[in-house]
Amino acid sequence: MLLMSIKRLTKTDIAKSQLDSALTFYLEDRELVSAITLAGAAEEILGKLCEKEHKPTSLEHRTKLACDLFKFVWNRDEDEKSVRDSMNQTKNELKHLISGDAIDVDIEFEAGELLERAIGNYERLFGTKTDKMCSFELKHREASERLFPKV
After folding, report:
1. pLDDT, position 61
2. How confident is the model at residue 151 (pLDDT cuts 50, 70, 90)?
């Protein structure tokens, strides 16, 4: 007789598990494609939970910042949907068969961006960060400083 082990998972449980696995992959420099898809899934679930609590999401915040920057630099408005689509392009290409073409991507950068958004949503919901999230932020900051050295 086969015994089934059914466990009830909340959306919060699922998102936390996805985010934890994505952080592990990133911190261990492995499976960054999986880190992106897991972080993206966690970011979406946590974002929906933020919306249910009437809290702004990381994506909303970053979209507004990008649109404000676009207005400041080029003195014209940018469509928020276009900005969001651009921010989600790599995640969506990795999750779905969008074009079917190979993509060129800075995989570490994209993983870091999605992890930052997922962590931002987590922090908005729970008011705290885990030790693994803090380790990620240190590593990601160091990677960003290599890309954009201080002058």
Report:
1. 93
2. low
